[in-house]
Predict the 3D structure of the following.
Amino acid sequence: CVLCARTDDCPEKYGEKRTYVEYKLTVHYYCLLMSSGIWQRGEEDEGVYGFLIKDIIKEVKRASRLKCNICKKKGASIGCVAPKCKRSYHFPCGIQKECIFQFMEDFRSYCWEHKPVQNFADKESGGTSQCTICLDLVEQLPVYNVLKSPCCKNAWFHRECLQYQALSAGIFFFRCSVCNNKDKFQKEMLRMGIHIPEKDASWELEENAYQDLLQCYQHCDIKRCLCKKGRDYNEPDSKWEIKRCQYCGSRGTHLACSYMKSWEQNWECMECRSIFAKSGNYSKQKKRSLATCEKTDGPPCLLEEPSPKCPRQSPGSQRSFLLQSSKIMCQNNLSPCSPIELPASNRVTVSLPPLMPSRNLSLRKKHLRQQIREVSNILKELKLQVNKKTTTLNINAKNIWNSSLKGFRQRSFSPTNTIEIKFTNCKNRPKTDTSAASKHHFFQLLMLHLQNSSLFEGSPAKNLSLDFQAVKENLYFEAGKMIAVSLVHGGPSPGFFSKTLFNCLVYGPENVKPALEDVADVDVAQTIKMIKYAKSLSSLESTIYNCYEFLAAAGCLRPITALHDKNMLVNDILIHHVIKRVKSPLESFRQGLETLGVLEKMQMHPDVFSSILCHKPERLSAETICDLFTIHSSSDVNEVEGADFWMGYLQDVESGESVVTLEDILLFATGCSSIPPIGFDPEPTIKFLHISYPVGNRLLNCLELPITKTYEKFKKKMEFTIRNTLRVERE
């Protein structure tokens, strides 16, 4: 090297060594960077790293007149920057003498007497610790070869280990190996002479380093694959597209081999399903794979699905989506990949009128269903906090609020306990029902009471009201707590929040602008309208004069000099009446909603929670009920004919050709007249059995349906049983 006269080629110590034959020049990169009399005057691709050749030659001539204070030889190009210090040295000599070279800003160099040091507290030095990079012992002493992390109390490093890590990680990935701090850690290490190159990490620069990660698993692992082109065949946007396990990604299935539709996203392999089942965290997916079927005897077949690339049907065309969207789980002799082909004469096709008259309506419903799925998954995640310890609430349905308040305030109540409901009849005799149906019914009554209580005002969307007695008794907190518990424990959502109330809870009241529709008080609303729609300055002043006392009490008096000042005045009144006036109730209500982490999830996912807190559930449809229930079948049952009768009956009910409603069917099977935001546990199922009349097993959410020869008999039995069962219950 022309600057240090060493032949060493050690990039870690001295930087890259380059030789330029045409100039008879060899130089170390670090020697060049730290030389005191040279600057980068060229571009990166000019000369040597931007140092011009003529400047390097000048620097060599300058250094040839300076003697190194360490090795006593000529050519010392680096000088100490401390004031009045005249020491000069070669770069390798400086390393040997423990000088500090700062690879930043002006590339300063400090000799062994003036070098920066780290300050240790007396109690920190003297012991031994473990280098968090090489894991060897390091003495906690303020010496050159030991460095302490500025961001961690007990993180110590060898200087050599840190330098190797910095060279490997580069400026983008070099950080504290204990706390992952980057800015503070890099600043201190640069001050102490660690060179952090401005490059990407070495592992990022390796050719094809991540090639294995770019290989998607493309193999069907179902026990009996139906694809004639083999298990590795994958055709996107068709029934032969391969879906990977959503958890491990190392198992796959053709859509057709697991009876999946092209729009279904979730599928899990047997291994992951068993792991989740053993851990107790597994909840069955609504659209589930048939890969769990063990028996594979039976004729191979396939339930076909139209390609998503097919032309869109016109609104007047006939459809049979119920038949296509039904879910049939084989349990006995049917193969998981067995379609059921029947002669055309035996097949019942349910032709449905168009349910989505426009594309926008279809997209809106699809978006809403996606939000419902998201909020269900979030609530199921929160429900993992609930343990098996039981808390019993004695509830009087005729005095739902007081009995609920007493139950929620009892010492043994905890939101993380499993809730059991005991309804008392008119004779005050306990009537126990531990099923989810009674719990849902309780929360349904409670949400209805809250909607009509004095805690809220407005119609139909409600904001918090100001009830001083409720504030005194802390009822707003209890109301928020009850809503949070209802959502997580399988109850209904309130569905009556105004957008303003929801935004106050999620974004904070200071970031919300209320509207005139949020004012429930008729007199206040009329006053605001008179101010808002004043057409002249004189009429505005007259209105303000007439309601002077109200404006003074609200703290909204302001000088009015022009007609447009009315807009600011209206805004002040709205903020006072809708937000500031109920500041205390709002804060208590927010604290109640923090129960079980519900408010935190609302703030993380405002869009999906808005769909259930600000809107009532959509009216049930035949398609919704059909998708909700999974059909279980056995070897001695013609499940296709039974499914046809079932779906035909749903269509008749939806079109009004029945004495029962879809809500009645759901209530008969599950005890709930609407689908709770968290979904059902266990998921609703259907069994076709050789029984006389349908049976609703609410403990298992199972609807047992009779096998009949004709559709007319099936419909007659369904209507007779459901209508009379619900009538008796209501009486």
